[in-house]
Specification:
Order of helices and strands of chain B: HHHHHHHHHHHHHHHH
CATH topology of chain A: Four Helix Bundle (Hemerythrin (Met), subunit A)
Structural class of chain B: mainly alpha
Strand content of chain A: under 5%
Low-confidence stretches of chain A: 1-7
Low-confidence stretches of chain B: 452-456
Shape of chain B: globular
Helix content of chain B: over 70%
CATH topology of the domain at 290-440 in chain B: Four Helix Bundle (Hemerythrin (Met), subunit A)
Shape of chain A: globular
Strand content of chain B: under 5%
CATH architecture of the domain at 290-440 in chain B: Up-down Bundle
Largest interface: A-B, 16 and 18 residues
Oligomer: heterodimer
C-alpha cells in the first residue's frame, strides 16, 4: 500500500487490501445492489418464464457479446496499467489507461445504440417486468461505465501507484458486474 | 470545559429539553385520545396535537444537534466559537419561530394566509415566515461553525458533522417548493423528510457518536475515523436512492418499487455498523470514563437505532410487504423506535455527557439518569412491540379481510390501551431524566464493588 517496506505483514486484514478500504466498501455495496437486483429479476421470472423469454428475444445478443469482449479487454488493459506504473513506466501507464477508457467508450456507444433501438421499438420500463429490470440493471451499469471512464481519466492525471490501484479496482468491479449481467439478462432461457 | 464558548450549548440544551417535555406530554395526550377519542376534541383536536407532537420533536432534535455542535466543535477545532453573540441570536430566532408555530397551530390564526398561515403539509406545516426564520438561523449557524472549523484544527468528526449540517440546511430549501400536482408535491416533500432522517441526520448522528466514543472510551482517533468513514459511506450509498421506498404508491413510475426496495434494504447496514462500532470501541477502550450514564445512553442509542430504524424499517420497506402495511400502525411502531433510538437517545447521550462539564460538577445523579434510560427505553420498546401487534392485526383485518378503517380501530383498542400505559412510563422516564440533569445532586452515590473492580 504505502511505500514503506514492511517485514512483518500487518495483523489487520483490512490493511492488506490493495487500494483503499473505502473503495472496497463501495465495491461490496455495488455488488450487493446488483446481486439483489438479479435475485429479484430471477424471482419475478419464475412467475412468467414464457413472457420473460419472449421479451428477451427483443435484445441484441451479438452486440452484448461484443460489448463483453470489449469491456473485459478494457479491464485487462487497466490491469496492465497498474503493472506498468509499479514498474515506474508512467508514459506506458497513461497509454494503457487511455486505451482502457477508449474501449469503455466503445462499450457506451454500442450500449447506447442498443438502448436507442429499444426505445425506437417502443420498449420502456413499463412494457413488461423483464424490461423494468433490463433497463434498471443495464442503465445503472451504463452510469457506472461513465463514472469509471471519468475515474480512469482522473488516475491518468494523478497517477500515484495508490490511485492506480483504487481506480482500477472500481473499473474491474464495473466489468465484473457486466460479466454477470450479460448471461443472466441476455442468454438465460 | 476547555473553551468558554462551549457554554452556548447549555442554552440550547435547556430549550431542547423544554420542547422535549412538550413533545412527550402531547404524545401522552394523543395516546389517551386514541382510547377516548372525544377527549378535548373541541379545544385541541387530534390533528393539532399531532402537529405539535411531531413538530416539537423535530425542532428539539435539531436544537440539540446545534447545541452538540457548539459543544464539540471548539474542542475538536481547538479554538473558541467564532461568535457566541451570533449563536445566541440564532437560538432567539429559533425560539421566536417555535412560539409562533405553537400559537398559529393552537388558534389556527391567519388560516390560508400566504406568509402567516399554517402551510398544511405534514411535518412542514410551519407558516412561511417561520420557514424563512429557520433558514436565517441555519445560515447564521453554518457561518458561525464553518468559520470556527476553517480557522482551527480539522478532524473527521467536524468534517462529517459539517457535511451533515450543511446538508440539513440545504435540503430544507425544498420545503419552499410546493407544486400543485400532489404526486410532485410528495416527491419533493420526501427530499426534506427522508433525506433528513435517512440521509444527512445519519451523518450528524455518526459524527456525534464518534465524538462520544473518543471521549468515553479513549480509543485512538485513527480507529474511530476509519469506522466513521465506513458508516457515512454506507449511509449515503443506501439512503439517497433509498428515498425510493416512499415512491411506491404516490404516482411515480413503477421502477421505483425495485430501486426503493433494494436500496432501502441496505439502509440497515450503516445502523448495524454504528451499533458494532459503539460496542467494539467500548471493548477496545482503555479508559473507564466516570460518566457511565453517558456511555449507557450512547450504547443504547446505537442499539435501539439499529432495531428501530434498521430492523423495524426493513420490516415494511419491501414494496410487496408495504402494499399491505402502508400507513398502518406498523409505520407508527417503526417511527417511534427509530426516532427514539437514533436521535432522541443520541441527544440525551450528549446532554448527559456535557451537562456536568458545562455546569462545573462531577457526573451527578448518574443512578437516576441510568434509571431514566431503562424506564424510557423499555417504555419505548414496549410501545413499539404493542404497535407492531396492532399493525399486524390492522393489516390483516383492513387490508386482507377488507374491513373498514374505523371498525378495525375498535378491534385495536386493547393495543392502544397498552400503548397509553407505555407512554406513561416514557413520560416518567423523561421527568426522571430532567431531574437528574437539571437538579444538582446532594450526595455522591459510591460505586458498588463490581464497578470498582472493573475500574481497577
Amino acid at each position: 500500500m504505502s511505500g514503506t517496506a514492511r517485514t512483518i505483514p500487518s495483523a489487520d486484514p483490512l490493511e492488506q487490501l490493495p487500494g483503499d478500504l473505502m473503495m472496497w466498501v463501495l465495491i461490496v455495496s455495488e455488488l450487493l445492489v446488483f446481486g439483489a437486483g438479479l435475485a429479484a429479476f430471477l424471482s419475478v421470472r419464475i412467475t412468467d418464464p414464457a413472457g420473460f423469454a419472449a421479451a428477451q428475444d427483443h435484445l441484441h445478443r451479438a452486440a452484448a457479446g461484443i460489448n463483453t469482449v470489449v469491456l473485459v479487454t478494457s479491464g485487462f488493459l487497466a490491469a496492465l496499467a497498474v503493472r506498468a506504473r509499479c514498474g515506474g513506466r508512467r508514459g506506458r501507464t497513461r497509454l494503457l489507461l487511455a486505451a482502457a477508457a477508449l474501449l469503455g467508450t466503445v462499450f457506451l456507444v454500442v450500449k447506447g445504440w442498443e438502448f436507442s433501438d429499444a426505445f425506437a421499438a417502443g420498449l420502456s420500463t413499463e412494457t413488461h417486468p423483464f424490461f423494468t429490470f433490463y433497463f434498471l440493471l443495464t442503465g445503472f451499469h451504463f452510469a457506472h461505465v461513465v463514472a469509471g471512464i471519468v475515474i480512469l481519466a482522473l488516475i491518468g492525471w494523478k497517477d500515484s501507484p495508490h490511485s492506480l490501484e483504487v481506480g482500477t479496482a472500481f473499473w474491474h468491479m464495473v466489468d465484473l458486474v457486466w460479466v454477470i449481467l450479460f448471461p443472466v439478462l441476455y442468454l438465460l432461457r | 470545559m476547555k473553551y468558554q464558548s462551549q457554554k452556548i450549548a447549555l442554552a440550547y440544551m435547556y430549550v431542547a429539553l423544554a420542547l422535549f417535555t412538550v413533545q412527550v406530554l402531547m404524545g401522552l395526550l394523543l395516546g389517551y385520545i386514541y382510547v377516548q377519542p372525544n377527549f378535548l376534541s373541541e379545544i385541541l383536536p387530534f390533528n393539532i396535537a399531532r402537529m405539535l407532537h411531531t413538530n416539537s420533536l423535530v425542532v428539539w432534535l435539531i436544537t440539540g444537534f446545534f447545541g452538540a455542535a457548539y459543544f464539540l466543535i471548539p474542542e475538536e477545532s481547538e479554538r473558541e466559537i467564532h461568535s457566541p453573540m451570533l449563536a445566541y441570536l440564532q437560538l432567539l430566532i429559533l425560539v421566536v419561530g417555535t412560539a409562533g408555530v405553537v400559537v398559529t397551530y393552537l388558534f389556527n390564526l391567519f388560516d390560508g394566509n400566504f406568509l402567516l398561515g399554517n402551510e398544511g403539509r405534514e411535518f412542514l406545516e410551519q407558516p412561511k415566515w417561520v420557514k424563512a426564520g429557520i433558514v436565517v438561523a441555519a445560515l447564521i449557524f453554518l457561518f458561525n461553525v464553518t468559520m470556527t472549523v476553517l480557522k482551527g484544527r480539522k478532524t473527521a468528526v467536524t468534517n462529517i458533522l459539517l457535511l451533515g449540517l450543511w446538508g440539513l440546511a440545504l435540503l430544507f430549501l425544498f420545503a419552499f417548493y410546493n407544486p400543485e400536482n400532489l404526486a410532485l408535491d410528495k416527491q419533493y416533500w420526501w427530499y426534506v423528510v427522508h433525506l433528513w432522517v435517512e440521509g444527512v441526520w445519519e451523518l450528524i448522528m455518526a459524527s456525534i457518536l464518534a465524538y462520544l466514543m473518543l471521549k468515553l472510551t479513549g480509543v485512538d482517533r485513527e480507529v474511530v475515523e476509519k469506522w466513521l468513514y465506513v458508516i457515512v459511506a454506507t449511509a449515503l450509498f443506501s439512503g439517497i436512492l433509498g428515498t425510493g421506498h416512499h415512491y411506491y404508491w404516490i404516482g411515480t413510475p413503477g421502477y421505483w418499487q425495485w430501486i426503493g426496495s433494494i436500496f432501502s434494504s441496505l439502509e440497515v447496514i450503516p445502523f448495524f455498523a454504528m451499533m458494532s462500532f459503539a460496542f467494539v470501541m467500548v471493548w477496545k477502550g482503555r479508559r473507564n470514563h466516570p460518566n457511565r450514564a453517558a456511555l449507557l445512553w450512547s450504547l443504547g442509542c446505537a442499539t435501539l437505532a439499529f432495531f428501530g430504524a434498521g430492523v423495524w424499517g426493513f420490516l415494511h420497506t419491501l414494496h410487496g410487504v408495504n402494499y399491505y402495511t402502508h400507513g398502518t400502525q406498523i409505520t407508527a411502531a417503526h417511527g417511534h423506535l427509530a426516532f427514539f433510538g437514533a436521535y432522541v437517545a443520541l441527544n440525551l447521550a450528549v446532554f448527559t455527557y456535557m451537562a456536568p462539564i458545562l455546569r462545573g460538577r462531577d457526573p451527578y445523579n448518574q443512578v437516576l439518569n441510568m434509571a431514566s434510560f431503562w424506564l424510557m427505553s423499555s417504555g419505548m420498546v414496549f410501545m413499539t412491540v404493542t404497535l407492531t401487534f396492532a399493525g399486524a392485526v390492522q393489516t390483516h383485518l383492513q387490508r386482507v379481510m377488507g374491513m373498514n378503517f374505523i371498525e378495525v380501530q375498535d378491534q385495536l383498542a386493547i393495543f392502544f390501551w397498552m400503548r397509553f400505559g407505555s407512554g406513561v412510563a416514557v413520560v416518567l422516564g423523561v421527568l426522571l431524566f430532567l431531574y437528574s440533569v437539571l437538579v444538582p445532586g446532594r450526595e455522591v452515590v459510591a460505586p458498588g464493588p463490581a464497578v470498582q473492580a472493573a475500574a481497577e
